[in-house]
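[agent] plan:
  1. take the single chain provided in the ticket
  2. run structure prediction with default settings
  3. attach structure tokens to the ticket
  4. add a short note for the reviewer (M.T.)
[agent] executing step 1
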Amino acid sequence: MKNKQHYYKYHIFCKVIDNYGDFGVCFRLAKQLVSEFNKQVILWVDNENILQKFLLVNNKEIQQINAEHNQNLIFKIWTKFNVINSLNNNDFLNNSIIIEAFCCDLDCELLDYINNENNKTILISLDYLGLEKWILDCHLLPSFLNYYKHIKKYFFFPSYLPNSGGLIREKCIKKYIKKNIQNLVENIQTFKISLFFYQQPQLLLTFINAINYIAKKHKINIEINFCDLSKDNLNTVQNYNFDSLVKCNFIHFLSQNDYDNLLQNCHLNFVRGEDSLIRAFWSNNLFIWQIYQQQNDIHLQKLNDFLNYYFSITNFDTNLQTNLQNLFLFWNKNNYNNYQNSENNTIFFADLLLNIIKNYANIFAKNQSWLNFLNNQNSLCYNLTNFVDNL
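[agent] step 2 finished; step 3 output follows
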């Protein structure tokens, strides 16, 4: 019988492209590997400003993890100079797992260092969230690098699809989900919304016009939590003449735990990208996802792939499904800088939102099947550690 190789040390390399989500995913992965799987994690990030911002707002949680787990959560600035210096340390790799987060390219010096026949270091190319079924054919496949013939590298696809890499899900999630179910449906005197979006000014104007229209015409109390608005968009909202039934909160950069708590305490969460979408899943509440825009509308096909799968699990009745689908598509098809706000768009969007508010309890109940479906799968960290330890 083959002896298992238990890997203790993980290096996660992350390049920040254009937002905090890339590092946010890596940060969550690192925390769980340390706190639940007893690994040592060195998290390398190429943007010092973002690293310092995360360390500042998440400092309390980091200190607690390190106090309980022997200071095993380590952060380093990723530069070629820092990597080369680290290679001089004989214990730098030492039977390590190296994770290329979102398929980032590692330094040649690092690849040269581990390219030998006695090398036991394994590379994992961690991809973006997989939405299409073809990823199942590629998940865990080896990658053959012609120049680096002694390097063992494997593709790893996070996804909600069964038999994929899974999603980041901490053990504590089930506890607060149970609490949340009792909380929100019974306390709906004010409908609470969080808004985190790619910040097109005209789309924001459509949103606040629609909210104001609903509150004024239908006498509904609405609370909006605006997350991390740009300066111009913040000015737009602060200078807007809202109806007295609309309450606005302005939330700037939050710790990951605080953001998760916000999602748990809002009836409807507008989220963007990857990290906030997955956290919206675990919040147990309704969500509208703004997918990252790609050329030739490829993102819309991916969104439709997700919606088709999501609706196949949730089994909403026809009218609610149509309403939700229209809401998702409206929010994403108008994800353009040249989108123009109009009264027709405002009323159409308002009617979609109003239907969600009026049917919230029914939609919420149906959404539980999505959560149950996800909870019956292994987490990403479990799948990752189990895979590498059984190679």
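[agent] step 4 note for reviewer: The chain has a mean pLDDT of 90.
[agent] ticket updated
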